[in-house]
Every structure is written in C-alpha cells, then in structure tokens.
Amino acid sequence: MIIRQKYLDALTSFQDTDLVKVITGIRRCGKSTMLEMMRQKLVGDGVDPSRLFTFKMESMEFDGIEDYRELYHIALDRIKGVEHPYLFFDELQNIEGWEKAINSLRVDCDCDIYITGSNAFLLSSEIATLISGRYVEIPMQTLTFSEYLDFRGASLPEGDLGSSGVVQLGDRSFATTKSLFTDFMAYGGFPYLATKKPEKAVCSAYIRDLYQTIVVRDILAREKRRGHKTITDRKLLERICLYLSDNIGNKTSINKIVGTLKENGAASSNKTVDSYIEALLEAYLFTRADRFDIKGRALLATGGKYYICDTGLRNHLNGYRGSDTGRLLENIVHNQLVFDGYTVHVGHLRAGEIDFVASGNSGERFYIQVTETMLSEETRERELAPLRKIPDEFPKIVLTLDEVHPTDEDGIRIINIIDYLTGSAEL
C-alpha cells in the first residue's frame, strides 16, 4: 500500500476529535484505501484492532439497508461495550438519511467517525445544516504527477529532475521523467492504473467501466432515489459531459452549450443544461473555475472554464490525440494547484486572459500562464504580454514544457512544468 501522505496527515490532524471526517472525491480515486491506511496507522499507534469497525455500504453484507434507523442500530449493536470505537463508513451516499444516523452515533457514543462518499450531495445544504460545524471535509483527487511517480516506484535523483532525467522504476526498468509524464498525461492518475506501465486497451476498458458506473449509479440512479425528475436523459447527460470534456480550458457558458446541442439535434433549455452540469460537478467529474477581474478584484458571472478530474478520463472520452497537449497541460496544472490548497480562478484583463489566478489562505497570490512551448517569438509574446499588464506585485509565472528556456523575463519567472509538478521548482 503506497501512502498518500497529504490525505493521511489531514485525517490524522482531526483524529479523536468530535468532528466527523468526510473523505469525498470521484469513484476509484483511493478513498476506501485511505480509510484502510488510517486503520493501519491506528493499529501501528497501538490501537487494539477490536476497536476498529468498518461498514462497506456497497458490500452484500449491507444490501437492502436504506433506512438510517437500521444503519444506526446495526452500528450501535456492533460497538456495544467497546471503549472509544473507531467507525469507518465507506460510500454512505446511497443510504437515505445517513446523516441522521451518523449524527446520532456522534452524540450518543464516545466514538471517532470517518466516512467516504462519491457524490457531493453527501454534503448538500440540508445535510450540512444537520451536522453543521461537526464535520470536516477532506477532498480527494486522482494522483498528481508526483504521486504517480511514487506509484510507478520511480527512484528520483537528487536536485533538479529535468524532463530528460532518467529514473529507475519499481520493476527495475528505466524511463525518462518526460516519458513518464507523457504516460501520465495520456492515461491519467487513477491509482489502480498507476502501478505499472500503462497499456491503452487496459486503461480504456477500466475508465469506460468507471465512467458508466458514475453516470448510471452516481448520477441517474441517485437522482431517481432523490425523487427528482430533472436528470433522466442519459444521452443528454453524456452529450453534455462530452462537450465539457472536449472544451476543458475554454471559456464556456450555458448559452453556448444549449446552442451547440440545438445544432446537433438535441434541443434543451438553459435550466435543464444547468441542472445536468451541476450533476456532473456533484459526481466530481468536473470542477469549475470562475473568472476573476484582476483590475476590479471581483468575480465575474460568465465565461468560466471547466476542468476534468483526470486527463485519462478526458482522453478516453475524446480520443487519444496528440494535438491537444496545451489544454491537457492546463488541466493538469489546475488540478495540481487545487491539490496544493489554492483557490483557483481564471484571470480576466482587457489585455487578455490569464490562465490561472491562484490564491492561498495566507493572502498570497500567483498569476500563471501554461503553455506547451514558448520558443517562438509570437508565442512568447502572447504568454508574457497579459502578465506584464497586471497592476500589482504578486508573482507572475509561465509554466512550459520547454527544457531550455530563460528563467526570468521582465520579472516574470519561467518554470518547466515537470520541475514544478515534481517539486523541483516552487511557484
């Protein structure tokens, strides 16, 4: 089991508190494994295994349990007489009213609770109201490139990796960092696929099954159980998903999507499309980055961008084509910034768009452009010009795949993307 330290540290920091620890994220990003990592850590710290209780809600053991009262009494019966038990609930979103059972266990028992869920409805407004202030969410993503290297068993040299740096892998083969990044960009970072050299047929079959599970079980079936009639058209859902996937990194509006659907014989209303997009966001398939007016220091209501959870999923949906590297790079950088804890917006200036405005909790801010290459004069000017016109002193950065490049131009730092993603170069 490969430790994903960031998430384990987050769980550990809230261990033995009154807060319910809620791990959220897309299916198969490693949430269940993270619960097992936490279990192993507790045992390693001296907690008797008899105090650890796991409830895998998708197991046949709990098949048919849909009532929160039944869930509460099953859990209560199992932990009876156990001093300070640890409760692990995996994939709770299918249990209607689960939050009532969890809140009652929290109130009635001296216990430590950890749960996972693959749909953001798990923490919707009505649920959050019931346990408001009594839970902490730990959002989980598919692997970052640095984590991917860990999963491939890459033995990294000291210092600057460089995209041409040769590394030894867990299977004792050798590869360049750049070739590993090419694999990562094409096939993504789902943990199951990241432990060996990817094979296109295997990756495609795995992601196809994952995608169908998300669409059928996490979106359509969930909406049916909620009694909603909004998300019922599977073809429309998949068309909208395909549109968003094809347009990662492009400014997108509901009107534009509705217009495109109409042109392709699938007329729909703005309200319906908006509901379908919300369902895709709730399933963690996409993240929206709103536009930020840099000069006016305000969020803009229109023209935001959508980014997919994993480039492997994107390539499965839209085809493994080599002509789309720029937008895949932008998506990978977006996901890395989110992983690093930044709030990410798309920057707007009259002089042009800034790919990302990344804001930290301590008031720091970075303006970032992402480009495959900036070796030509035209491309270099296109990337640098908007950054030069930003009227403040926060750091301005261009991330590029170029291996040979200037490190500074007019006070704008230029960093190799692979060096940034592996931690060899900081923002």
UniProtKB/TrEMBL annotation:
Any matching Pfam family: AAA_14
Residues covered by the DUF4143 domain: 228-370
Residue stretches making up the AAA domain: 20-149
Protein name as catalogued: AAA domain-containing protein
Species in which this protein is naturally found: Collinsella stercoris DSM 13279
